[in-house]
Known about the structure:
It is a peripheral membrane protein. This is Acyl-coenzyme A thioesterase THEM4. By secondary structure, the protein is α+β, with helices and mostly antiparallel strands. The protein has a domain at 48-155: Thiol Ester Dehydrase, Chain A (Roll), CATH 3.10.129.10. It contains 4 helices and 6 strands, in the order ββααββββαα. It has a 6-stranded antiparallel β-sheet. The chain is globular, with a radius of gyration of 16 Å. It binds ligand 3IX. Residues 4, 30-31, 36, 84-85, 88-89, 92, 97, 99-102, 128-130, 152, 154, 156, 158, 175, 178-179 line the site of ligand 3IX.
Amino acid sequence: MKSSFVVPADLDAVQRHPKAAKVGERMRMHNPLCYGCGEESAEGLHLQMFAGEDFEVTATMDVAARFEGGPGVIHGGVLSTAFDDVMGMIPLLIGPSAVTVHLEVDYQRPIPIGSQLQFTAKLLGRQRRKIYAEGIAHLGDPDEPVATGHAIFVTIDVREHFADHLANSRLADEYKARMSRP
Length: 182
Ligand SMILES: CCCCC/C=C\C/C=C\C/C=C\C/C=C\CCCC(=O)SCCNC(=O)CCNC(=O)[C@H](O)C(C)(C)COP(=O)(O)OP(=O)(O)OC[C@H]1O[C@@H](n2cnc3c(N)ncnc32)[C@H](O)[C@@H]1OP(=O)(O)O
């Protein structure tokens, strides 16, 4: 099957948002309950994200015992979740919130439980609402990736997109208050 991940040639110009995190700064959690980066997600991945130069994001993740798939190694689905969340921070450097419409992961090496994964993700381009991103995961040497991810995010109006589902969040009241602010 043909992949829908093809970066178009006619890309739009992009600028870093003036209020985006500065280089080296920890990036704000988009949702404290997020399974990827939320500090209040008890079972989540607890990714720590940092803004890089231009449109880059770096992140670290401790490969905890609860993430096991094969004996002694990370579950592939857990790793794809991590890629989703790390690459998903790139739109925030540009400005708009965006959700994943396409995600693919190439698994290159087994990743041991107990290791610390490091991620580097970058923008490949934007066309209208679509934001194309690439990420690599490594165990200390970026020239020796253990996995590579590609994703497409589509920008959304947060208030409209989550309107029908917000009430299901344990933080519904907090979000309603945030969203009612101009
Ligand atoms: C103030 C309070 C703030 C609260 C903040 C809280 C959360 C913030 C939200 C975002 C998160 C921020 C940071 C992110 C961190 C982590 C990332 C994790 C993100 C996820 O884990 S999120 C879960 C999984 N995700 C979904 O739950 C999406 C389900 N989906 C939809 O809800 C619709 O699909 C939607 C609305 C996205 C689009 O629908 P739509 O009707 O508005 O627009 P349409 O269909 O026209 O698509 C527009 C253009 O995208 C192209 N397109 C569409 N799909 C494509 C595909 N698969 N491949 C290639 N291109 C595709 C079309 O071809 C067209 O392209 P063109 O430019 O050519 O027109």
